[in-house]
Task: structure prediction
Amino acid sequence: MTAAELGMCSASRLFVRELAAAGGDALVREARDRLGRDYPVFDFVAARALEGDPAPPIDPEPVCGALAGIARLLVVGLEAFFLDALVEALPDVEIGLIADSGGMEPDLRRVLANYRDRVEGVSLGDIHRWAGRRSALLTFVYGADAHVVYVNATWLRVSGPDVRTSFRSLVGWDIFGRPMLVYPRWLVETARDDLSNLVGP
Result:
């Protein structure tokens, strides 16, 4: 439920923080050993915490640079902590959200309530309403290599050739900055070249 309404990385950050506060590295390590194979995003976030970097600062400025000049942004997938930073950094941009999380369905009403009308819920059937020469698509990327990126499965339903030509740019925000350590269950891979810009930490 937490991953559905916060996003897998944001939920993992929250859980790792609480585990560390309750039992330090030992409890984080135990949780990672028990849950990491089933929840690879949690595994990644826990491993980073155990390396001494539990929650790198979220900096939306490189993403804003990639989005410079747009009037409308359609975000595909939910990562609440990162979306919070982006909404604050883009006060003059109209923002829509396709929050379907590849099988983990959020209560969209509750998600949107956090943004006080700054973010609009968008269904897959309404994507073309957001298209235009000053519009962009953005998705969260969970690690990449030279050829592929790992994204929410909904991105594949949104980023087809017909949609690509309807938006000025397709931006991936790599919120990990390096590949995951275990098989990326719950995510799908797509070609890095399908993105206009891949922005990392």
In short: The mean pLDDT is 92.
